[in-house]
Amino acid sequence: MPKTPHVALLIETSREYARGLLRGVARYQQEHGPWSIYFEPHGLDDPLPEWLVGWKGDGILARVNSRDMAETIVASGIPAVDVRGALPDVGLPFIGVDNEPVSKLAYEHLKSMGLRNFAFCGTPRGENPNQDRRCDYFVSEVEKDGYSCGTWLGEQQRLRAHSWEEQQQQIAVWLRDLPKPVGIMTCHDDRGQQVLDACRRAGVSVPDSAAVISVDNDPHLCNLSTPTMTSIDVNPSRIGYEAAAMLHGLMTGNQPPRRVTFLGPPRGIAPRRSTDALHIEDQDVAEAVRYIRENATSGIRVSDIIARTKTSPSTLERRVKKLLGRTIKSEITRIRLAHARLLLSETEFSVAKIADKAGFSEPKYFCEVFRKHEGVTATEYRRRFRDE
């Protein structure tokens, strides 16, 4: 009988992202195990478990959060994979989120609200390279369209040196000075919740004066926020699954990858009240966009939108294209595909049923459109992004 691998999971349970990683690891070992799992519930900043020093296991999956942790893992000589990426120079293979499509998705969502002022609220530069990339990609997307982007990263004084009240006051001052209305991306849900609280302190109305979108889609933080917070689901379960697969390879003699591995794109946006507004001065376009978002999955056609306005078809098309950067038909398709992706990843519905629920006239047409836009078939998408 082959030996059962002993694997340590140094992944916290205090964040939804980390819990998603654990779900993915669990699914992998159920499919390809069994593994003997060494695991204790803990927080990200908790000290290393005492048993790790001198432990003689076969593999480690870790959210490496300190040099002491990294050095202990490297010194053990045990095959290990990092699923945090905060310390890219420690010599451990890393697998994580591709932040470029995450930032692009956030920008496109805010831009589609009709916003033309943008800002990013993150953490001090150098604290986490992934969050730095998230900021840089967002600013790049904004500037490519000719707009400017304000940033607040707490760079002058590290945030941990301040109390919650002092942090909130700093963010509130920054928020008051931003041009309004403004679309704000935050680096993660923790910061997003802070921004929404600071908006209340600063008297900035959400979503009318500031629309806020965050990352990780932690349902507790997002629904505890006032108003509830829109967030991007980066599908941590898939990252946990692929990290477990990478570790399995290392434990069976594979060489570690020479480069970091980024998985993407994200699963999609979980829309909530913090971005539930339209800032479009052109009333005909605003009405058209609102109608599309409310009815795209009901099988509407371009002619249905045009019939609701007194504007000529060519004029309405031109104005929509100018404000959204895409045609009426493209906007309908975008909404339908977003709904289809959600159904593929979260339900047991057949592809044919999903095509119908997303507003496509025929399953075959849906499959063609999905593959054209997503680069994979609907069935393959489900396999990759399913969070079981």
UniProtKB/TrEMBL annotation:
Keyword flag Transcription regulation: yes
Protein name stated in the entry: Xylose operon regulatory protein
The organism's taxonomic lineage, starting at the top: Bacteria, Pseudomonadati, Planctomycetota, Planctomycetia, Pirellulales
PANTHER family: LACI-RELATED TRANSCRIPTIONAL REPRESSOR (PTHR30146), XYLOSE OPERON REGULATORY PROTEIN (PTHR30146:SF24)
Source superkingdom: Bacteria
Record SUPFAM superfamilies: Homeodomain-like, Periplasmic binding protein-like I
Keyword set, alphabetical order: DNA-binding, Transcription, Transcription regulation
Molecular function terms from GO: DNA-binding transcription factor activity; transcription cis-regulatory region binding
Gene encoding the protein: xylR_2
Coiled coil regions, renumbered to chain: none
Record domain HTH araC/xylS-type: where: 286-384
Pfam family, any one: Peripla_BP_3
